[in-house]
Amino acid sequence: MRSMRNVRERRGSVGEVFDLIRTGQARTRSDLAGLTGLTRATVSQRVEVLVGRRLIYEAGEGASTGGRPPAVLEFNRDAGVVLAADLGATHCRLAVADLAGTPLVEFADDLEIAEGPEAVLGWVQGRIGELLEEAGRDRSEVWGVGIGVPGPVDFSRGRVVNPPVMPGWHGVDIPRKFSKGFGGVPVFVDNDANLMALGEHRIGWPGSEHLLFVKVGTGVGCGIIGGGNVHRGAQGAAGDIGHIRINGHDEAVCRCGNVACVEAVAGGWALVRRLRELGVEVGNSREVVGLVEDGDPVATRLLRRSGELLGEVISGAVSFFNPSVVVIGGDLARAHEQLLAGIRTVVYGRSLPLATRHLEVSPSKLGDRAGVFGAAAMVVERVVPAAAEGVAAERTG
Ligand SMILES: [Zn+2]
C-alpha cells in the first residue's frame, strides 16, 4: 500500500517501524532490529515514541528464546476513529471506523444530493455525530473524515468540479464546511467510484496491483487502481467512462447533452426509460433489478444487453490498462449474473489473449458497503502514517 511504499524511502524511521508493526511483519523489538538494521537502543527509542503517540501498545509476551520473554507490540487501532460518508445521487451510507479502516457502526438511508451542499452536509454532520455516540466515542477522538460524492472531484482541494447530478455543489469547499463540527480534523473528498474501487481493492483484492471498478447504477462510472493507488488523472476525471460513445445508438440522447453515451444505452436510467417505452411500470434502477430477480423476460433481456454494451467499453479499458481484476458494482450489479454474463462474453471475446489470460471479472465483494470501506481507507492511510511520523496529514494523491 502507499504508506508502505513511502516508508521504504525512510529506512529505519519511526514511520517504517510503525508500519512493520501495523502490518504484522514485526511483533517484537528484535524483529524490528532484524528487519530495519537499527540497533536495539534505536529500536527501543522508536517504540517509545510510538507508544507515546498511542499508536502501538505492548500486548503481552511472545515466545521466549531463553531469558525474559519479549513483549509483543501491536497496532492500537482503537486509539481514535475516522468518519466515512458515501454520498450517492439518491442514497447514502455513513460509518464510524477504527484506525484500521474497519467500520464499527454503519447507517444507510435515502438522501437527495440535489438538495444542495448546505442541506446535505448539515444533515450528514448531524447524523454522523449521532452515529459517533452510538459507537460510544467522543468527537475529540475523531482523526479525520472521508467523503465520497457522485461527481468529479479536485482531490487536492476537496472540491467538486462541474458535477452533472449535483446542482449547487460546484466549487464548494467541502472540507471547510465539514471539519468545523469535528475540531478542524482533516477532511478528504473523492469521487464515489474511486472510493468503491479503493474499498474493493483493500478488502477484496489487496494482492492485485491493477484493478478496475465499474459502477453500474443510475449512471455508469469507473474507479481505477494502478500500482495499488487510486489513479485520478490530471483533472480528477479519470475513469469517467459513462459518456464514451457506443456506435449505432444515435437515437439515445444522454443527460450530458450528447447522444449514444454508454450510460444512455446501458445505465440504470436508460433501462428505466427503455422499459417505460415498452409499457413496463418501473421507477428506478433498483426496481429494474427487482424485475430481473422476478424473472421478467423483457427486463432480463435488456439487462443482459446492457452487459454486452458495457462489455464493449470495458474491453477497450482492459486492452488499454491491463488490469488483473475488473469488479462490477453499483445498483444494477445486484442482478450480477445477467449483467456479468453479457460483460464477460464481450470482454473475453474481444480483448487480446494476453490481457485476458489471467483477468478476473467479478461482482463486487462489498456491495453497498464498498464506498464507506474506501472512504475509511482513504482517511486512515493518510492520517495514521502522518500521526506516526508526528506530522500533519496532507491532501495529496
Ligand atoms: Zn453522456
What does this structure look like?
By secondary structure, the chain is of the alpha/beta class. The protein has 3 domains: 2-75, Winged helix-like DNA-binding domain superfamily/Winged helix DNA-binding domain (Arc Repressor Mutant, subunit A); 81-196 and 370-389, 2-Layer Sandwich (Nucleotidyltransferase, domain 5), CATH 3.30.420; 207-365, 2-Layer Sandwich (Nucleotidyltransferase, domain 5). The chain is 41% helix and 19% strand. The strands form 4 sheets. Strands 5-4-3-6-9 form a 5-stranded mixed sheet, with helices on both faces. Strand 3 (81-87) and strand 4 (91-97) form a beta hairpin. The model is unreliable at 1-9 (pLDDT under 50). Zinc ion binds at residues 243, 254, 256, 258, 261, 264.
* Structure class: alpha/beta
Number of helices: 14
Describe the global form: globular
- Mean pLDDT over the full residue set: 91
Helix content: 40-55%
- The CATH superfamily of the largest domain turns out to be ATPase, nucleotide binding domain
Count of all domains: 3
Give a quick account of the main beta sheet: strands, pairing sense, barrel closure: 5 strands, mixed
Heterogens:
zinc ion
Question: What is the rounded distance between the termini?
Answer: 13 Å
**Beta-strand proportion:** 15-25%
* CATH architecture assignment of the largest domain: 2-Layer Sandwich
Radius of gyration: 23 Å
**What is the fold-level CATH name, i.e. the topology of the largest domain?**
Nucleotidyltransferase, domain 5
The sequence of SSEs as H and E is: HHHHEEEEEHEEEHEHEEEHHHHEHHEH
